[in-house]
Specification:
Length: about 375
Amino acid sequence: MSTELQVVAARLHRVRMPLVHAFQTSSHRKAYLDHILVALEDASGAVGWGEIASPSDPYYASETVETCWHIASRYLLPAIIGRRWTHPSQLQADKIRGNQFAKSGLDVAAWVLWAEAQQLPLATVLGGQRTEVVAGVSLGIEPTIDDLLAQVQQQVESGYPRVKLKIAQDWDVEPVRAVRAAYPKLDLHVDANGIYTAGELDRLVELDGFGLTMIEQPFAPRDLLAHAELQRRIGTPVCLDESVETVADLETALGLGALRVLNIKVSRMGGLTAARAAHDRAQDAGIPVWCGGMHEFGVGRLANVALSSLAGFTLPSDVSASEKYYARDIVEPAVTAVGGVVQVPDGPGLGHQVDREFVVANTVEELRLGPGQE
């Protein structure tokens, strides 16, 4: 498409939403989330929505809601308002180092606006081929193994074919053993969010006998050598998440033999532009990929669904139904999963409408940029 677009105004909404079930990882526990919604408006009045799904605290990544708000409002949005463009990739903020989460919200909003301008689904303009996506769920660390088993049972009964368990040093072998004993054929994998050290490699080797689909991000993001050593010692595929923020990171990991699966997160990689490039490179290298999530609201969730329609996403992705995390979502209709499968929207843009009144009702901070605004 060669139609020229121009963002004339933009809004940021810091939206707070309670989780239906508190979620604990190896680093922290959360009962609600603050995410930043980005709305880009072009001269025709069309609006493209994106979501900055950064954590509130610097445990998963160095970015937080506050840092993203600062970078988006001071640097990213002013750089694109009034600028003319014909493809979302032209709005990449290459001069700004890092800040992938902040960049992601604007990149997704630009892709959605571009799709809206063509009256095409987001999945179509990305090059997606699937009409439905197999979903998986991610379960946090629970107070007891019985509590965990109850959560697994609930998700299996809901039809989800894959369950991911968060693990840590005091919550790894025994919970996995219990879940595998109860569900011997379940597609099961674990995620450590980088909490282990190279000196604890032998403990992770113990997990190799449970028939896991993958062990995700056992070591710190930059410790690719430890990931490579673990992969040499086990048959279970090692999956990288936090280690890969750019395609260059992926090239390094491939060169070291540090992974056999890649988790592609739109937020972690700075948006759909970079996520699609990582998908293409992984596909060339024969590395299966899946789309990870950050407990996104409906906007980010639908962007993940669209990305997961690409050919290389052969493993279940974190695109479960809205109701898994939120009593009410910000999009209408909410994202649903039937038998663990999410339909790829076929309407223009996101394919769902953003409930603006509900967004405003749950906004705790707002910024408007454009003519007459500061």
